Structure formats: structure tokens, C-alpha cells
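Re: the 251-residue chain
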Amino acid sequence: MVLTVRFRTGIATLLLVTASGSFAYPANADSSKSDAAVAISVATGSGRLPDRLQATLPGASEKRAAQLTAETQSLAKQALALRAAAAARASRARAARAARIARAQIRMAVPAYGRISASFGSRGHWTTRHTGMDINARYGDSVHNVIAGEVIRATYDRSYGRIVVVRGHGVDIWYAHLSTDYVKVGQKVATGQKLGRVGCTGHCTGAHLHIEVRKNDLPTNPATFLWGSHRGKPGDSPTWARTSIATLNSL
């Protein structure tokens, strides 16, 4: 069968040339469609036009272009979403790695050797609950700086006795009841450096080192800072430690 479509003054006539040479024209053609569309529909015997014929109809290329544009935009959005998710995962991984490295780089030293005779928050002969931790070291033992920083106080206080305060890593560390000290205000001190010696100055019942770890001049548990799961990071200051305590400026 040979299919030939001819257009004559805007009217399409479909000629179906059969092997016998006979001609046929559709009697039930739909007047709402173009003559070309009706002719092609009848010739193919189906309501669905083959892609090659569909592309010949008016407006077909514009519709296909619009369809391809929509598909392209959808794929582009999916690609952007996947890219953003991958970037977020990479950012979280970098942050976690940086935190691990930072924790590993924190070098800390033991302030003094001895048993803990009074813990943070315990009650005793103090006017308030215990704002630090007591290490029952021997008189004259060396007191070592816990973490690198700068000496911001080196003085004598009626309650704390001879005291050295070192600021570093976001906290102030108080070393109290010293028999002597080796540093002065403004001096940079390294981790493990000797600050002084254990004594029993100020309000004291026996030789020991009283150590406090303060953030924003509020006492926190020294054990959390020294040996907690996130060592080098202070814990929260409890409510009772926010009132009736000695301040840095009062020393």
C-alpha cells in the first residue's frame, strides 16, 4: 500500500492507492479536526499517531519542547537536591573530624597527686557547698598547671590562702591554699608547668590542693573538666553555685 497526502487550496485529500488502483475517501471524517489529521488517523487505523506522523501536525514541536523542558527542570531539581544532601553529609563529617582532632590535641596535666578528700558540691565546714575539689597531697608537693593559659591572679586571700588563677581554654582554674607560688600576673604558663607547692594557707585544716574550674566566674565540677567524657570541656554550673560565692574580683 502506498500512502500519499496531497494538499490543494487548504483541503487535504487522502488517496489510498491499492494494488488494484482503486481510491477511497473516509465518509465519516470528523469535521472538528484538520483534513490532514483525519486522513492520517484513518490511514493508520488507530487513534494514536506514530511519532513520525505526530511530529508533522501543527504545534507538535512546541509541545515536545515544553515536555522536554519540564523533564529537564525536574531532573535538575533532583540533581541539586542530591548535591545539597551530599554537601551536608560532607560538612557534618568535617565538623566531627575537627572535633575529634581538637579533643585529641588537648593536653592536660595532673594538678597534684593524692586522694580526693572533698568533691564538688559536698557539704562540710564551709559556709557554702564545696565549690571545687580537694586533693589530699603532701605539704610541699608540686602543683602543676592543668592546661596552657595565662596567669590572671597570683595573690593571697583570707579564705583561699595563697592562690593562683590561670585562664585558658575558656575557663579559669583556681589553685588554692598554696604554701608558695612561682608565677606572676600576665605570665604565660604551659601545660604541666609548676605553679607552686601544696600548703595549708587560708581556711584550711590540713595540707591539700583546692582546685576550682570556673566558666564565666561560676564554679563547675572540676572532675568533669579533668576526666569527663569530653575532657577539657566544663560542665554546667548548678543553681546553688550561682549565689553566695567568692568572685574573681573579690580575691
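The chain has four helices and twelve strands.
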